[in-house]
Design a protein that fits this description.
CATH architecture of the largest domain: Roll
Largest sheet: 5 strands, mixed
Distance between the termini: 17 Å
Number of strands: 9
Number of domains: 2
Strand content: 35-45%
């Protein structure tokens, strides 16, 4: 199978982090480059921008892999461990980013829709995407072909 790659831009994350980053950086410059607290907060916000400006899902013959932003945080799941993949929606309160909920982990950069990977031996994982129908069909087809 040809490798499939899906990328979602983190509009919500960028809209949230970028203005605050610019504000904190301007306050650091205004302080004459002396306020360590605003520098620290600016660096944390810049790291958040690098981590959450996009989410990329890659599907090949053996794995479903996703990475957030520049790839400092990523996960890889064997397709043989996945029982099925469903389209999923979660609540506003579950938020975006990396979250633990009662139904498992959520990894998202924008919006409240994605895919839910279900496994034999552990809780499910939700990954945000704007192509949930297409991705879930591909994963289900591959896992079905692998089983029988």
């Amino acid at each position: 199978m040809e490798k499939k790659k899906y990328t979602q831009f983190g509009t919500l994350s960028v809209i949230f982090f970028l203005p605050i980053f610019v504000l904190m950086l301007s306050l650091f410059v205004k302080s004459g480059f002396k306020d360590a607290n605003t520098l620290f907060v600016s660096l944390i916000l810049f790291l958040c921008l690098l981590l959450f400006y996009k989410l990329t899902i890659v599907i090949d013959d053996k794995f479903v892999t996703f990475r957030l932003g520049i790839g400092l945080f990523w996960k890889k799941y064997k397709l043989t461990d996945i029982t099925d993949c469903e389209m999923a929606e979660w609540k506003f309160l579950d938020g975006v980013g990396i979250r633990w909920t009662s139904s498992g982990w959520i990894y998202s950069v924008t919006g409240f829709k994605g895919i839910e990977l279900n496994f034999n031996n552990r809780s499910s994982v939700r990954i945000g995407t704007n192509k949930s129908e297409e991705i879930s069909e591909i994963i289900n087809k591959i896992t079905k072909d692998n089983r029988g």
